[in-house]
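example protein:
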Amino acid sequence: MMAQEPVITFEKTEHDFGKINEDGGRVSVVFEFKNEGMAPLVLSNVRASCGCTTPTWTKEPVEPGQKGNITVTYNPNGRPGRFQKTVTITSNAKEPTVRVYIKGEVIPKAAKPVNKYTVAVGDLSMKEKTLDLGTIKKGQNKNGELEYANLTQADHNVDLATNAADSYLIHQVSLPTAKPNETGKFIFAIETKDAKIYGPVEAYAYVVVDGKRNISEPFKLTIKANIEEDFSNLTQEQKQQAPIIEMQSEFPAVTIEAGKAQKYVFPVKNGGSDPLEIRRAYCTDKNMTVKAPKPIKSGKRGAIIINIDTKGLQPGAYSRELVVISNDYLNSIKKVKFNFIVE
């Protein structure tokens, strides 16, 4: 005699998805069941063992001899590797709790290439906008490059514009017409024989896209270098006759009235034989202007003059550094500390 209650039976209780792709989207399987009892079968709950698995099921009562189904959907995104999940079915059947199972293996999706070109320059993208060429000996040249990419869906003409004052900066564009997803290079060289400056230098170039010149900050590229004099070919006789720079390393503080300007004089003596040439004297403070002397003969003195403008400075004590670059091969770079008080 058949039972006077529902009986749930499944055609299968396990499904193997095999190998599925992580980026292939969700996969589903239908578990079909039958009520082989003598009373209506009602599924009160169907619960998966984790949030990656979602079941849907027949909600209305399943009459004796009729069939229902449970659809189990698995989301492989972010879950590479083998998996096995359980779905628990609760009903009013003679066996109130039964389970079905899914398993498989998720093949990892290919890693997306990292976007290296994250700096926007108009319709172009770059890795960076600053190129540091490091130290370059006077008379030598040094090359470097900055990469760019066209990440748009249109072709773009690419060029560079430079300042006339930076005539020592040579540039080249490797890909004057950049098609979508193409990459190119801005190639720079500093020809130091044409540079009338020693020490740290900064030159600027502006990216020109489709013939539109824009000298605003987003389009500016900065090329840095440190130009040093090359003393490696000096003969022994030249070394013996070389100039010798003599100056104090620190000067006592002076007092300046707030809002006023004052001249600061740094005496310099040539203790060598050949003329002493101050290649460059500078202070990085924008309130300072520096004037270097003409070549100083043997045994003679000259003066480096700094004009200090206190406009915009708050009252208080200040300490600054003067950098002096000369043709003294043993002390080509000297740093002088000077102090002042704004009242």
